[in-house]
Amino acid sequence: QVQLVESGGGLVQPGGSLRLSCAASGIIFSIFTVGWYRQAPGKQRELVAVVLSGGATNYVDSAKGRFTISRDNAKNTVYLQMNSLKPEDTAVYYCNGRLGSHDYWGQGTQVTVSS
After folding, report:
1. DSSP labels for 3-42?
2. Nearest C-alpha neighbor of 110 from the set 83, 90, 87, 82
3. How many Cα atoms occupy the beta-carbon half-sphere of 45 within 13 Å?
4. 2 near 105, Cβ under 8 Å?
5. CA–CA separation, 51 vs 114, rounded Å?
6. pLDDT digits (tens, 9 = 90+) for 63-104
7. Average pLDDT over residues 48-75
């Protein structure tokens, strides 16, 4: 059974940092393309950052310079380090693993940026 479990969300003040984790079980996460998505209330889900199996990364413009996606293959885990957080980063963050027709999602973790 494949599971992706996100953790690390919470309430943080503007300018603060959080590190989200996405731990996979039942698959070899290192061969998957893994993305972090977010969905704010009333908005569509958007891709925030992605890391390919070879390690290449890409980010939405609003995350460039502030967020870093990385993977620890030994722990079967992908991280999203988020710095200089802004209120507009408030959303539920989801982890997605994709390989061919295999497409897995986590349950999401809430990130709230507010003073």
Report:
1. EEEEE--EEE-TT--EEEEEEEESS-GGGSEEEEEEE-TT
2. 90
3. 11
4. no
5. 28
6. 999 999 999 999 999 999 999 999 999 999 999 999 999 999
7. 96
